[in-house]
Amino acid sequence: MVSRAGGSRPAPRGLVPFQIEVPSRVLDDLAERLARARLPGAPADAGWDYGIEPGYLRRLVDYWRTDYDWRAVEARLNRLPQFVASVGGYRLHLVYEPGSGPAPLPLVLTHGWPGSFVEFEAVVEPLAHPERFGGRIEDAFDVVVPSLPGYGWSSAPPAPISPRDIARVWDELMASALGYARYVAQGGDWGGLVTSWLAVDAPSHVAAIHLNIMGLRLYLGEGSAPLAPEEEAWVARTRARLARETGYQAIQGTKPQTLAYALTDSPIGLAAWIAEKFHGWSAPGPDGPPFTMEQIHRRDDLLADREREHRELALHPRRHAPGARRVRRRADRLRLLSARSLPRAARPLGAAGLPLRAADGSPGGRALPGLRAPGRVRRGRARVLSGLPGRTPGLDCPGSS
To answer: What strand order describes the sheet that includes 141-146?
Structure first.
């Protein structure tokens, strides 16, 4: 079991309370852009084969124009305990909810692209106060949800940075700014890579991690152990799916500044860019991604007033270039990290095997078959979880030390 040290406490001195307040002129500008938008033509019966389905985009835009209420979303998000802090040279925005009981376990949750702290809105209170939801107070967490540098209200880096760079900032946030000697971490997408590097580079502070993406992969090159048939099939499916679904990475990883002009000037262009990925990365129904229109817009249209930049912004692509000033997406970084030289992180690991595996798109089953293969992960160091967890399990890994 991972020991729980520390406990609930008032916000440390370095945290400054924060509330979202988007100026009305920003929303007025957005409404004008939506009203005068020009939509392109599309091949007959295009469906989702060439990108976002035209009919779905029209419905999304109509909802955005007539029904979406940013002020209601803003008020709801402001019920979260938000702060800003100066850490590692950045002005970091974060949600910080101390947990119930005498010894909640510190937990940092990290989002990815195209996401934000909003991804964790619904789990902050259940994780911090499980007794309010039928759980045990002994399972409470001190919940920390920072916004990645350049996302939302966190300041942008002056030049490209890597997930490993962000992991160092996160450790400074948790260990120095918040004063936690030991903590656990969870992440997906870029957050999965940040979390993985936390386990590698900060083992004295990180007690365990939980991932819903395995970004630091096992070495499969010359001299590696042969794959089992199940593993070979998984690798083949993954490579085929990545060939179909990573066109966005090619442009964001090589010429992001060019793309940034289109996405910054056109909110509908940005909506199409992001909503198409929600479709490709999920188990879509006949009418599109399995999200409500409001959920799409909560991610895509989180508007920020960033001191000197009073314009509509989406969390990742609308400020400067998508990826150019945040997490480095150079071509040599697009491949999932895999090398013999990667250091081992001797930390307990929990991984989520979801009903639809985002890596290969196949339903059901256990993702990453090699995770439990003999000699690949030390026995007792990892647990694969099927389905979506109600809380963040897998942090207390049976058999791990």
So the answer is: 16-18, 82-87, 90-97, 141-146, 105-110, 183-187, 206-211, 349-353, 382-386
Of residues 192, 171, 168, 15, the one with CA closest to residue 95: 15
By residue range, what is the domain housing residue 292?
16-386
CATH of the domain at 377: 3.40.50.1820
> How far is the C-alpha of 123 from the C-alpha of 186, rounded, in Å?
12
Q: Which of 308, 324, 335 is nearest to 238 (CA)?
A: 335
- Distance (Å, rounded) from C-alpha 228 to C-alpha 135? 40
Count H helices, E strands: the chain? 12, 13
- Provide the domain count of the chain: 1
Centroid of chain to Cα 25 = 29
What is the rounded distance in angstroms from the CA atom of residue 147 to the CA atom of residue 120? 11
- E strand or H helix at 92: strand 90-97
Q: Which residues contact 11 (CB under 8 A, 6 or more apart)?
A: 17, 81, 83, 96, 98
Residue 122 forms part of a structural domain: yes
Q: Which amino acid is at 95?
A: V
pLDDT at position 58 is 92
Establish if 63 belongs to a structural domain: yes
Number of Cβ within 10 Å of residue 379's Cβ equals 10
Cα(121)–Cα(354) distance, integer angstroms: 20
Neighbours of 330 (CB within 10 A): 12
Mean pLDDT by 10 residues, the chain (401 residues): 43 88 92 92 88 91 90 94 96 97 96 90 95 96 96 90 95 96 94 93 94 77 85 85 85 88 90 86 66 57 31 33 40 39 65 55 44 34 35 29 27
Nearest Cα residue to 381 out of 357, 347, 356: 347
Q: What is the DSSP string of 253-271?
A: HH-HHHHHHHHHH-HHHHH
CB 108 within 8 A of CB 170: yes
- Asked whether residue 290 is domain-assigned, the answer is yes
Is 194 part of any domain? Answer: yes
